[in-house]
Amino acid sequence: MITVWGRKTSSNVQALMWCIGELSLPFTRYDIGHKYGGNDTSEFLSMNPNGKVPVIKDGDGEPIWETGATLRYLANRYAKSSPFWPEDLETRTHIDKWAEWSKINVALNFTVPIFWQMVRTVPQHQNQLEIEKAINNLNNILDIAETQLRKHQFIAGDHFTLADIQFGHTLYRYFDLKINHPKHSALIKYYNELTERPAFKEHVMISYEELRVI
Ligand SMILES: N[C@@H](CCC(=O)N[C@@H](CS)C(=O)NCC(=O)O)C(=O)O
Questions:
Q1: For the GST C-terminal domain, which residue ranges apply (predicted)?
Q2: For the segment 174-213, what is each residue's pLDDT rounded down to a tens digit?
Q3: Mutation probe of ligand 1 site: the residue of 14, 52, 106, 204 with most atoms within 8 A of C-beta
Q4: How are beta strands 55-58 and 2-5 bridged, if at all?
Q5: Are 89 and 31 within 8 A, CB to CB?
Q6: Whether 70 and 17 share a structural domain
Q7: Which residues contact 96 (CB under 8 A, 6 or more apart)?
């Protein structure tokens, strides 16, 4: 049994929960963080000194934090030898490369400069010029995903892998926001297919209204 500490409106928790769903793992999840609090207690900080979610424990195991590490742990423990996280080092590293690319280039260039600015910042403090610049920057990065997805069904190739979790979980909010979405036809097809996956529907396509500042 996997225990998860983290509110379901956290994008990092969503990536983790989507992975848990795709791997059909039993779990218990506690709402922690943001309006639920609980991430500043000594009990929580003894698990994760950063006070951030998600944190997981597998049975009585050590707490694991940093979303990328939790995903790799689950994949190593429960999806070894599957196309999701193959044993072959070269194939796995190719997937890991796209997972890392997604976290650093897509998720980080979306969450704070775009999502936080548009949803979690009061309008009088929003910097429209900076938001526009951030959207253009992200859309340029997504050109790379578009090129990849014109050649392959998934972000790291022809199978659904851990890289799709790190890449795809950001797309629900990206497409939901009323911003300029270029005609990335392969990316849009890919996203539409993700929205048909039950675990994506359940864990990623979640309202973010509780995060809105007004
Ligand atoms: N690098 C960490 C970042 C974790 C993080 O920033 N989590 C956010 C939610 S997405 C958080 O805990 N925010 C404080 C809160 O929810 O109260 C990871 O990848 O897990």
A1: 88-214
A2: 999 999 999 999 999 999 999 999 999 999 999 999 999 9
A3: 52
A4: antiparallel
A5: no
A6: yes
A7: 72, 162, 163
**What is the count of structural domains for the chain?**
2
Q: Which two tokens stand for residue 139?
A: 């859309």
Q: Quick one: 171 and 116 in the same domain? A: yes
H or E, element range at 13: helix 11-22
- What SS3 state is found at 30? strand
The 10 Å Cβ neighbour count of residue 159 is 16
Residue 120's pLDDT is 95
Ligand 1 contact, 166 CB (< 6 A):
no
Contact 5, 14 (CB under 8 A): no
Contacts of 143 (CB under 8 A, 6+ apart): 182, 184
